[in-house]
Amino acid sequence: MESDRSASAENNRVRIVAAAARLLADGGREAVSTRAVSSAAGVQAPTIYRLFGDKQGLLDAVAADGFERHLSRKADLAPTDDPVEDLRVGWDLNVQFGLDNPALYTLMYADPRPGAESSAALAAREVLGAHIHRIAEAGRLRIDEPRAAQLVHAAGGGTTLALISAPEERRDLTVSHLAREAVIAAITTDAPSAHAPGPAGAAVALRALLPGSAALTPGESALLAELLDRIAGAG
Where does residue 184 fall: left (phi above 0), alpha (psi -120 to 50 degrees), or beta otherwise? Predict the structure, then answer.
């Protein structure tokens, strides 16, 4: 009996998210009202509140579902030996995702709630962080990982939102390419860390590789990580 209720709740959840996603794509955020969603999904309004808490909870679920589908399409792209080129590919894919799903992308990124990021936005940050970490491991990151990820996130999101807001006939994708290359130039070096200018590049690379070393005690690793972060930040 309990399993039947769980299955029914999951079925309702899937139908509600799908209905809300269709309404969002067709009419924007304003079209996703409780009445419209309950009618489109064939459920009563209390079911929506029971499963999602409120409208914001439903919108977060729609954003998370859309981003998960986006990630599943990217799963076929295996990492190459060039993490910087992989970052380029990731940038272009995310810009295209925004242009193909403007209402969903705007929902994810154009309504920031400090300290309350949606699960979709958090997942996007994790994917970006993994890209940046691979660049650091390769010894090609010029600045520390958190700042590099924040810069790529801000520039990529801002560029995509600007393109979304422009009339389709006036969209110039070379703007995205220029922004992408400017950001890559700002955060990466052309050579591995052995040839990177100054100690900051070496500190960033060593910091990225530190978790793979078993030569230090946990306390020593924590201390070295703190010192490396300080050197990278100063650079």
Answer: alpha
Are 102 and 209 contained in the same domain?
yes
How far apart, in Å, do the first and last CA atoms of the chain sit? 61
Q: Are 74 and 123 in contact (CB under 8 A)?
A: no
17: buried, middle or exposed (CB in 10 Å: 19+, 13-18, 0-12)? Answer: buried
* Residues 11 and 76 occupy one common structural domain: no
Domain count, the chain: 2
- In this structure, the answer to whether residues 72 and 42 fall within a common structural domain is no
| pLDDT tens-digit readout, 172-221 | 999 999 999 999 999 998 865 444 456 776 777 777 777 777 777 888 77
Q: Do 37 and 68 share a domain, yes or no?
A: no
Confirm whether 58 is domain-assigned: no
The domain in which residue 175 lies consists of 63-234
| Other Cβ atoms within 10 Å of 98 Cβ, number | 23
One domain for residues 97 and 22? no
DSSP label at 211?
G
Residue found under tokens 């978790």: 211
- Please name the amino acid found at residue 6: S
Phi, psi of 23, rounded to the nearest 5 degrees: -65, -40
Q: How far is residue 95's CA from residue 90's CA, in Å, rounded to a whole number?
A: 9
Other CB atoms within 10 A of residue 193 CB: 22
Report if pTM > 0.90: no
Q: How far is CA 55 from CA 15, 101, 109, 114, 159, in A?
A: 15, 20, 17, 18, 28
What pLDDT does residue 38 have? Answer: 93
10 Å CB burial of residue 42 (0-12, 13-18, 19+) is exposed
